[in-house]
Write a structure and sequence with these properties.
Elements lengths: L4 E2 L3 E3 L15 E2 L8 E7 L2 E6 L3 E5 L5 E6 L4 E7 L5 E7 L10 E14 L3 E11 L10 E10 L2 E8 L3 E8 L4 E8 L14 E7 L2 E8 L2 E6 L6 E6 L8 E3 L5 E4 L4 E5 L2 E6 L4 E8 L2 E7 L6 E7 L4 E8 L2 E7 L2 E6 L3 E7 L2 H10 L3 H10 L4 H17 L3 H10 L6 H7 L6 H13 L5 H14 L2 H13 L7 H11 L2 H10 L3 H12 L2 H10 L2 H18 L1 H13 L32 H14 L6 H13 L6 H23 L3 H36 L12 H10 L3 H10 L3 H11 L2 H11 L9 H11 L6 H14 L4 H8 L8 H44 L20 E3 L5 E3 H4 L10 H19 L1 H10 L3 H10 L2 H4 L9
Parallel strand pairs: 1-27
Antiparallel strand pairs: 2-30, 3-30, 4-5, 5-6, 6-7, 8-9, 9-10, 10-11, 12-13, 13-14, 14-15, 16-17, 17-18, 18-19, 20-21, 21-22, 22-23, 24-25, 25-26, 26-27, 28-29, 29-30, 31-32
Helix pairs in contact: 1-2, 2-3, 3-4, 4-6, 6-7, 7-9, 8-10, 9-10, 10-11, 11-12, 11-13, 12-13, 13-14, 14-15, 15-16, 16-18, 16-19, 17-18, 18-20, 19-20, 20-21, 21-22, 21-23, 22-24, 23-24, 24-26, 29-30
């Protein structure tokens, strides 16, 4: 025992103040209200119950004050136990019965939640049941031990150990007296004498298995109560005296003997701890073994508190004559024979650690916090201090082993800063590796570790860290940081491995393209990726690929955008897969310096895909490429740069040799070839542009496949006449078409355009001839031939009055009268004929009008004689009653029927006339119809005259406003 270190991890508490901290020179005492000698005690549910030899039971609070006391038994309380699950107190005591036929020993169950009044000064809990311990089947003997097991409330298992080696068991609902009794017997003494007393009892519960330890002075037995009948087995042939039996928190039996303390499990004896001295009391408190050992020479007791896990004595102090030991409120409570109470509490962890740190007992401190299951932060703090201690002693390897255990709780920078010295780079590398293994490394830690590897030139460790057992397992570091450091140190293969394993394709390609320049390998890698990933990587590094491998890049883009490489996923026009394929417009920006390959890419795409969602943007982009004047081709740019460089060198040499003139001649020749080639390219592109304008807006299409406004702006900006003419014609902007020819001073084109667009029978605009005539009239040069041709079509279509023709052409001083002489003569002759015909019509209408007037006057002034003798309807002789009409028709009244106000013969003609009149009046109110006829007629005046001639306009009345 002298090898065990002694510490003062416990201290005596001021029990009189409720155990609240600090030591006290004067111990507490059992309250004076408890007059009898304390025979038993029990803790539980925040109170300590003490039983006395006068039959009273007192309940003490945390300050060891009497909460209340009551008379439990008449004579003496032998044993008691407070239950944990229910606020119930079970007692065994002597009631001094006068009858000699029944035993005086009774078992009582008190419900502490139900307190009944007994007078004005005392209170007593309600006694729910009283049982006789001894009966005829269970003979009386001296009780030596007592324990209650709460199986499942209200079911209790009460065990009573006797001095004759028997254990009486009472099981069931004690309050309702639904119980069963049975007894257990340990084996007789080895020498054949009477059985030895039961000195200790302990329960072990594992699920449904209930086992009972029974201790005598010479044996340890185990009863299996879940087996019927209960099975007994002897665990050992040694025992102990009363009060030297306890149960650990792992439900192991503990017995104390003079030579040692023994632990027992269900299969026999377990650990044995050799502590000399008579064990008056044995207990268990929060993982500590409690032993009150009596010195045989001085007969003084000593309380030793053992930490068995760490092999140390947590506390040792002399105590007097202890009668009872109980644990409650987190304290060890000793009740002395003189009724004094000693309360011993454990110091807090910080105090214990400070004590150990002052003695540099860091190993003990670590074991202590680990055995008491302290929080990880506290454990890490102890490890840190131990590491600091070792570091101060320059034991760097041992210090690092402690710091490694603090990972996850101690800030890594604290450790890293200590080992940044280059001499300790190996320790720092070890620490950083552990950080990464536990997934707690940051980007900076990864950078530092990789720098350590590169500084040490330890390629093997770098491979292990980067490749992680040939790529098996998850990456435990920041990918981007590892790649950045490896690239900076020149370990490109390692950086590529990390990028590929992490699926960071863009970083993998960045290394291939920017660091290694392996463009073919990069293209092959992109081809192996899925469509989405390949699209993202091409967007990122497409400019570099187009610059060095343009044709191959275009081929990859076509596969991505058209699905030509995978026939199983080739889309249809109505497939949803269409929306999942990258759009060509997503890759336009990578051709910013290579528009020729962009043009090639888009041309091949529209050949392969006819129903792209982005076809409008594609056609717009192609039009811009076709129509622009300053498209720079990479091949020409490179060729120019190469040739110009050679030219400068050659020029310098030849000038030095006196041949400067010849050099200049060659340079001019080269520039001329380049200009010719560039002009040819512009012509070819514009030819493609015009073809695209026409193919993307055919006559069958209602809307074009490009933005018309953008196309107009492009054609106008780059003076693309053919494109403008096509667009104006498709948009029916005929006057703008004419304007284009006017600006070009193309007279024949003007006339041909008017022939095509001015034909009203084909939906053209005849007013174009008037604009053309006005143009020639204001031209200021001799254009007689063109004017004559124009006049021929104007006369044919009759779109411009002759007076307007004369007024327009008179503005051109270069035109003579001979140009319009024939035209005017023909027009005058036509007008004369029309005038003559109009005069004849006027005379005819005037004669008819006069005749109608005379008839109307005659009807108004003269009598009408009706001489018809036959009915017009039935042709029979006319008799009365008869009806005569002013139209000279006569009818029988019976032949007219209900229609006797109008002539049946003349009514249809009259009705048609009235309907026509009503229709004309209705048309007079239809302003839209009037203006449509006015706009659609060649001669608007004739339309207005026609309305007046029919009396429509003159008879139209305007309703008064506001009823006035």
């Amino acid at each position: 025992m002298y090898q065990w270190r002694k510490f003062e991890f416990f201290e005596e508490k001021a029990a009189g103040r409720g155990g609240g901290g600090g030591s006290s020179s004067s111990a507490a005492a059992v309250p004076a209200e408890i007059a009898g000698r304390v025979t038993c005690c029990s803790g539980g549910r925040g109170r300590v119950a003490v039983g006395c030899d006068d039959g009273t039971v007192g309940l003490l609070d945390r300050g060891f004050r009497l909460s209340y006391g009551f008379q439990a038994h008449a004579s003496s309380v032998l044993f008691l136990q407070q239950l944990k699950q229910k606020n119930v107190l079970v007692t065994v005591g002597d009631d001094d019965q006068s009858s000699s036929q029944s035993s005086a020993i009774c078992l009582k169950v008190f419900d502490l939640d139900k307190v009944q009044e007994e007078g004005s000064s005392t209170t007593a809990p309600f006694c729910v049941q009283i049982l006789r311990v001894f009966t005829d089947q269970f003979p009386q003997a001296k009780i030596t031990s007592f324990m209650v097991l709460e199986e499942a409330p209200p079911i209790l298992l009460i065990t009573i150990g006797l001095d004759n080696g028997f254990i009486y068991c009472i099981k069931g609902d004690i309050a309702r007296e639904r119980i069963t009794r049975f007894k257990l017997q340990v084996e007789a003494a080895p020498d054949g004498s009477a059985s030895l007393p039961i000195t200790g009892i302990g329960f072990r519960v594992e699920g449904q298995a209930h086992q009972l330890f029974a201790v005598t002075p010479s044996s340890v037995s185990l009863f299996s109560l879940h087996v019927q009948p209960p099975r007994r087995q002897t665990l050992d042939q040694i025992g102990c005296q009363t009060n030297a039996v306890a149960m650990s928190d792992r439900m192991d039996l503990i017995i104390g003997r003079p030579e040692a303390v023994y632990f027992y499990e269900v299969d026999g004896r377990g650990p044995c701890w050799a502590f000399d001295g008579e064990k008056k009391f044995v207990g268990w408190f929060r993982g500590y073994l409690l032993c009150i050992i009596e010195d045989q020479r001085t007969h003084k007791g000593t309380l030793n508190i053992y930490d068995l896990k760490n092999r140390l004595i947590a506390h040792s102090m002399p105590v007097g004559d202890v009668s009872h030991l109980v644990c409650e409120w987190g304290y060890i409570i000793l009740i002395m024979a003189d009724k004094k109470i000693l309360c011993i509490g454990e110091k807090d962890m910080e105090s214990k650690l400070d004590m150990l740190f002052k003695k540099n007992l860091y190993t003990v401190a670590i074991n202590l916090v680990q055995s008491q299951q302290a929080d990880p932060a506290s454990t890490a703090e102890v490890l840190r201090k131990y590491g600091d201690h070792l570091y101060g002693k320059q034991e760097y390897d041992e210090a690092m082993s402690q710091y490694i255990h603090t990972i996850g709780h101690l800030e890594p920078s604290y450790v890293i800063q200590k080992f940044l010295d280059a001499k300790r780079i190996y320790n720092l590398t070890n620490y950083l590796e552990k950080l990464h293994d536990r997934g707690l490394a940051s980007k900076d830690h990864t950078t530092l570790l990789l720098n350590c590897y590169t500084k040490l030139k330890d390629v093997e460790k770098l491979n292990d860290f980067i490749k992680d057992e040939d790529g098996i397992g998850e990456i435990k570091f920041d990918v981007e940081t590892a790649i950045r450091v490896c690239r900076a140190a020149g370990y490109h293969e390692h950086a590529m491995f990390v990028a590929k394993k992490a699926g960071r394709h863009e970083l993998y390609l960045k290394i291939l393209l920017e660091d290694l320049g392996r463009y073919d390998e990069a293209l092959q890698y992109i081809s192996s990726l899925e469509a989405n990933q390949a699209g993202l990587t091409v967007k990122e590094y497409g400019k570099i690929l187009v610059e060095h491998r343009p044709a191959e890049t275009v081929e990859i883009l076509l596969r991505l955008c058209t699905d030509v490489g995978d026939p199983t996923t080739r889309r249809g026009s109505n497939s949803m897969h269409l929306l999942m394929i990258p759009s060509p417009m997503d890759f336009v920006n990578i051709f910013v310096h290579s528009p020729q390959y962009l043009m090639e890419f888009l041309e091949n795409y529209i050949k392969a895909v006819k129903d792209s969602p982005a076809q409008t943007e594609i056609h717009n982009t192609l039009l811009e490429l076709y129509i622009s004047n300053d498209l720079s081709f990479p091949s020409i740019s490179q060729e120019n740069g190469f040739e110009n460089h050679n030219i400068k060198e050659t020029e310098g040499k030849e000038t030095a040799n006196g041949y400067g003139y010849e050099s200049g001649t060659k340079e001019k020749a080269n520039v001329g070839k380049e200009d010719t080639k560039l002009s040819k390219n512009i012509v070819d592109r514009r030819r493609k542009g015009l073809a695209l304008l026409k193919s993307a807006w055919t006559s069958e299409m209602e809307d074009p496949l490009y933005d018309v406004d953008l196309a107009l702006i492009l054609c106008n900006t780059h003076a693309f006449k053919d494109g403008l003419l096509f667009l104006y014609e498709k948009l029916k902007l005929y006057k703008e078409v004419i304007s284009c020819y006017k600006q070009a001073h193309d007279h024949q084109g003007l006339i041909a355009c008017c022939k095509k667009l001015g034909d009203s029978s084909q939906g053209g605009d005849p007013s174009l001839w008037g604009d053309l005539l006005k143009y020639f009239g204001e031209l200021g040069e001799d254009c007689s031939t063109e004017v004559k041709e124009v006049l021929t079509y104007i006369e044919k279509e009759d779109v411009v009055p002759p007076i307007v023709v004369l007024q327009t052409l008179s503005k051109n001083p270069c035109l003579t009268l001979s140009v319009v002489k024939d035209y005017i003569a023909r027009k005058l002759e036509q007008e004369s004929k029309l005038i003559e015909e109009d005069r004849k019509s006027i005379d005819k209408y005037q004669e008819e009008t006069e005749l109608m007037k005379r008839e109307i006057e005659d009807l108004k002034t003269n009598a009408k004689v009706f001489q018809l003798s036959k009915c017009t309807a039935c042709t029979f002789t006319l008799d009365l009653p008869a009806v005569h009409f002013m139209c000279m028709h006569s009818f029988h009244l019976r032949c007219l029927g209900d229609n006797e106000k109008e002539c049946p013969e003349c009514a249809p003609e009259y009705r048609s006339v009235m309907e026509a009149k009503q229709k004309l009046e209705q048309n007079a109110r239809d302003h839209d119809l009037f203006f449509r006829q006015l706009r659609g007629s060649k001669d608007g005046f004739s339309v207005i005259a026609d309305y007046f001639s029919k009396g429509i306009v003159s008879k139209t009345t305007v309703p008064p406003e506001n009823g006035r």
